[in-house]
Amino acid sequence: MSTSVHDVLQLAGQHQIKIYLNGDSLKLRAPFEPPAEILEQLRQWKPQIIRELSEPRHKSFVFTLDGCRSVTAIRPNGATLEEIQYHLLNQFGPGRVSDLRGCAHD
Predict the structure, then answer these.
(1) Helix (H, G, I), strand (E, B) or coil at 56
(2) CA gap 41, 75 in Å, rounded
(3) pLDDT at 23 > cutoff 80
(4) Other CB atoms closer than 10 Å to residue 10's CB: what's the count?
(5) C-alpha angle with apex 84: 82 to 39, nearest 5 degrees?
(6) Structural domain boundaries enclosing 24
(7) What pLDDT is recorded for position 106?
(8) Average of per-residue pLDDT across 10-32
(9) C-alpha span between 57 and 46 (Å, rounded)
(10) How far apart are the first and last CA of the chain?
(11) What is the Cβ-side half-sphere exposure of residue 20, based on CA atoms within 13 angstroms?
């Protein structure tokens, strides 16, 4: 049994469960049916998950440009690293961006 909302979210991520906030409810997407015990934990932690996903946070991401220049930028609220990667590919072109990683700042 998970001991914090972060544990539950990490467990969901390990099972490839994407969690989306839709008003006061959660929407789940997964490539396969998640185990019942994980769904139960998500139900039990629902208020905390909603609160966590609703909190505005300043997040940054870091990437390497042209193999040598490290760049740190502010992540738009709610943007996933996959969405940022797509944006950077369109902005800089293929092969120029590597080592994309995120880091949260409270």
Answers:
(1) coil
(2) 29
(3) no
(4) 11
(5) 40
(6) 5-54
(7) 42
(8) 86
(9) 19
(10) 26
(11) 7
